[in-house]
Amino acid sequence: MLFLKEMQKLPEAVQLIEKASMMYLENGTPDTAAMALERAGKLIENVDPEKAVQLYQQTANVFENEERLRQAVELLGKASRLLVRGRRFDEAALSIQKEKNIYKEIENYPTCYKVFFEYVWLDFTLDILHIGIKYLS
């Protein structure tokens, strides 16, 4: 995989990492699967943010299934930030909402409030954007 990275064939490297991750899951090692998926997300984040979002969400799901909510919420946060950066606001709002719910579940209330305010800000921004579009059309 390092060979593919050096040759600037990141999509191929990510595909191999995803296959390896599936094999890890099938063989009962979800931690290794999650680490591989997260590494793939970091690898491709600057080249293909949409794929990175998908990988981070997959990783969060693996951690969530293993009841490792702190790790899951950390990766959801990465996905949310990439979604906002990519101006995919509706998806970002859903991701932030899920993030908030997990923080609430693990009783990390200060961070839960912070994420709640991010959600409110995003919702406000979406409203302004929709009003502007209606006004211009």
The CATH superfamily turns out to be: Tetratricopeptide repeat domain
Measure the end-to-end span.
49 Å
Structural class: mainly alpha
**CATH fold category name:** Serine Threonine Protein Phosphatase 5, Tetratricopeptide repeat
Q: What's the rounded overall pLDDT mean?
A: 83
Number of strands: 0
CATH architecture name: Alpha Horseshoe
What's the CATH C level?
Mainly Alpha
Low-confidence stretches: none
- What about the largest sheet? none
**What order do the helices and strands follow?**
HHHHHHH
Percent of residues in β-strands: under 5%
The global form is: flat
Radius of gyration over all CA atoms, rounded: 17 Å
Number of domains: 1
Give the proportion of residues in helices.
over 70%
Number of helices: 7
In short:
Belongs to the SNAP family. With 137 residues, the protein is mainly α. It has 7 helices and no strands.
Give the key terms:
mainly alpha; Serine Threonine Protein Phosphatase 5, Tetratricopeptide repeat; 137 residues; single chain
Q: What do you see in this structure?
A:
The chain is mainly α. Helices cover 85% and strands 0% of the residues. The longest helix has 28 residues, at 109-136. The radius of gyration is 17 Å and the shape is flat.
What is the topology?
Blueprint: H1 2-6, H2 10-26, H3 30-44, H4 49-65, H5 69-85, H6 89-105, H7 109-136
Helix pairs in contact: 2-3, 3-4, 4-5, 5-6, 6-7
